[in-house]
Amino acid sequence: MCVDTQHVVGDDFAAVLAAAQGGSEDHFARLWRDANPALIRYLRVLVPDAAEDIAAETWVSVVRGLPAFVGDESAWRAWLFTTARRRMLDQARHVRRHPAEPLDDIGPAEVPTAPGAEQLALDNLATESAIALLGRLPEQQANVILLRVVAGLDTEVIAEMLGTSTGAVRVAAHRGLRKLEAMLTGPGVTSRAGV
Amino acid sequence: MPDSELRPIWGPSYDERDLDALLSGETWSTPDALRPVESTLDALRAAGTSHELSDEAAARAAYRAFGFAPHPSAPFPAAVTGQHAAVTEHMLVLPSVFPSVGSRPPARSARHRHRRSRPVAAAPRRPRLAVTGAAASVLIVVAAVVTGVVTGSIGELTSFVHRPAGASASAPATGRSRGSQAVMAPGAARDPNVSPTSSKPGERPSISAPPSARPTSDPGTLCREYVQDLGGFQDGSHSTSASRAAWTTLIGELGPIAGGQFKIFSYCLQRLSGPFAGNGGGPVPGGSAGASVGGAGSAGGAGTVGGGGTVGGGGLAGSAGASGRAGSVGSVGNSGSSGISAGSAGSAGIAGSSRGTATDEGQSAAPADRP
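^ inputs. structure came back:
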């Protein structure tokens, strides 16, 4: 059941990246299919309301800097999530400067809904439950766990991204896991998350 | 990391190693207490859903929008170049130069349009300066004569210059030439340029130089010409360019001698005052030499003293009849004055005032001539 999303490209990463940098759209699409689900999940935990928008802006930034990128797959992922984090901070800054007004005039029947949401929920119930659980964690702990699990980054890279030490990253990750375990084994909660 | 391999019998049944193993995806030795957490993390690592992959078209569009070619095999720089080339084919190239522009003068900015033209270079100032100096001299003379401030030789000088040659009653009045004769005659004794051929009484002295030409650059001669030409500014004889050139030349010659153009008048005044200082009676003994106008003028005094020379004395006295002082002196020589008076009528006011002074000169000079 455990499907590793960290190394989809694998050993072919260098060739795929070179082709994408040379103008191959298909190779770029391969890179995108590899990283975008993890990116969406990461963003959905931290900024649920603007995950898709921030993901789109992240990819725009990645496309701009793609010809100049040099590195392996781990560096590629680190660059991608670092860019996403920066766009996320920009989004939070924009929301603070331009607060949204409630749409009181629009009734519940007029609010558009995403097509296939029910089907999506049925297909990925475990993932949605997991994202919901991590959303209940403190931001720093959830951020570290997501970067460690979803993005597959090392402790040193995460520490560099967040501007902290590796020990603090490890402590935050452990605390998050303990809290997650407490939430899962508490009263009224089944032993298997989302199942 | 704990040193003991034994798990604690109290508290949680897992340690940090188990947590690190969960984060790394190593699920083969997961404690039972962490099974739910393990399942959650596995759900996060699951493959992408259709919803998460639905925006691939947008990602491809962004990829193409930023300069990457849609053709997979096309190299990046060539794709960019080809795209720009396609744009160039459909570009409307406007002509850089319009047909009518060639005939137009080059456009000038507003700043240059309103720029003032340069002033024309000033003309040489030296001729103007000389003329101005001469005019100033004339004005000084006129003002002095009219107001009567200047006394002494100037009145006699001007009267002497403009006096017609009618010192001799028989001689016709011919203006300047006669004046020259009148000036040169009394100075013949000391003026080397004038060579009286006859000093006998009753003979008219001949003049070697032409009357109007300046024979030499002797200061005395130059001064006489200067005084003569001063009168030319009044009667209009300096209206021609030739006379103005001659005047300029004269000023140029007298200037260094006198120590400056503005000192010419005083220099000539001192220079020419000699003839009126008592020398007049010399060459005209007994008044018989009445043909000499200058001598006659000066001889008025001499005639007064000597009792002779009535013609000369009458010449000066007759012309100075308008002046009270001159009239008294002129009464001494009372004969033959009518013709001379008529001849000096052209001297206008200058002569009128100068006559009196000239008479005074002659009067004062008379004692010096006394033996």
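Chain A touches chain B through 63 residues (CB under 8 Å). Residues 9-100 of chain A form a domain with the Rna Polymerase Sigma Factor; Chain: A fold (CATH 1.10.1740).
thumbs up if we can close this ticket
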